Amino acid sequence: MPFALALVASAFLHIATLLGPAWDMPTLDDEEHPPRLDAILMPAAPHTASVAIRPHVATTPTAPAPPKPPHAKPRSRALEIPPPTKVTESNLPVETAAAVLPAPTFNEPTSEELTPDEPAVVEPAPPSAVPVSLPDKGRMRFIVTRGESGLIIGQAINTWTHDGIHYTFTNITETTGLAALFNSARVIQESQGEITPQGLRPLFFSNDNERKGKKDTATFDWTAHLVTYADRTDPVADGTQDMLSMYYQLVLQVAMNQTMQAIDLSIATGRKLERYHFELIGEETLTYQGSPHATQHLRTKNGNDTIDIWIAKTVSGMPLKIRFTDRKGGIFDQIADDANTENTRE
Q1: Is the pTM of this model over 0.85?
Q2: Does a structural domain hold residue 122?
Q3: CA 232 from centroid of its chain's CA atoms
Q4: Which 3 state secondary structure label does DSSP give 227?
């Protein structure tokens, strides 16, 4: 049975299947639970363009024409160009004055003269990225447990890097300790994309299950609004995430104080698109590194499977806790253990 929902909860859920041969992992591929098709979109922020203004320069006057014959038709008068007005920062709006280039000397001709009908040159500004609370670089380690008793079966290491415009997220989940001795497993997820005024916009996602020798990928074309897998291409709506960027996007929305009563996200799994409807269960306090942190508890369901996420506004990166409960009642937790971050652009 496919492992789509388990991978969304986190790649660590693949590991849990290795510990019980008789335990079947649930899937989102069941046709009895079709995905929802509604999504919440946020309006795009205005895009600012810088305007470079060049002064008009009069051409060099030519010699006077010879006298006309007595009965010749008068020629049309040449277009007179008024003398140029010097552009200074004092007579421009603040946003335009900052973009004005040094003007050439007005008593010297220039090869880049503009005719009266030529518009000013418009130069697009660099992409405007959303303010992110995520440090430039970071690493978070999670302990992976199974059951209410919290039996440790593995770990998940999440790392990220971004420059305010582009990002790379990586998640490596593997069995540890006795679990690794009996059933060694390792899953690597990677998401690369852009940071926009509306949030994260993935460009490429991969999910590599080394034990199975299987790698799923999704490539996004936002100009055509398409996402391509190994054997198919689907139309994709604005706001769509992949299975790894989904967690960072939810944390970003909490950090930006966006309404969290209900959130709908379209998710590219590497094989197809799924829809997830997250609801706010309430606010709860979790202990992280010996200190209490207020969290927002979100939950999404598909059939009899459930994912719970606890997000703390005071902790950058991933949620503090992720719980997957399968249709048989099996519980798997991913609990944040430690983290280190770095801001390289300060």
Answers
A1: no
A2: no
A3: 23
A4: strand
Per-residue pLDDT of the chain (346 residues; tens, 9 = 90+): 333 334 334 444 444 444 443 333 333 334 444 434 343 334 444 444 443 334 444 444 455 555 555 554 444 444 344 454 444 444 444 443 333 334 433 344 444 444 445 555 544 444 445 556 789 999 999 999 999 888 999 999 999 999 999 999 999 999 998 888 888 899 999 999 999 988 999 999 999 998 888 899 999 999 999 999 988 999 999 999 999 999 999 998 888 776 567 889 999 989 889 999 999 999 999 999 999 999 999 999 877 889 999 999 889 899 999 999 988 888 999 999 999 999 877 6
Which tokens hold the place of 134? Answer: 């995520």
Q: Please check whether residue 52 lies inside any domain of the structure.
A: no
Report residue 108: phi and psi, to 5°.
-120, 135
Residue 143's domain comprises 4-40+131-342
Tokens 């369901």: give the residue.
301
Q: Which conformational region is residue 296 in: left (phi greater than 0), alpha (psi within -120 to 50 degrees), or beta?
A: beta
| The total number of structural domains that make up the chain | 1
In-domain check, residue 28? yes
Burial of 170 (0-12, 13-18, 19+ CB in 10 A): middle
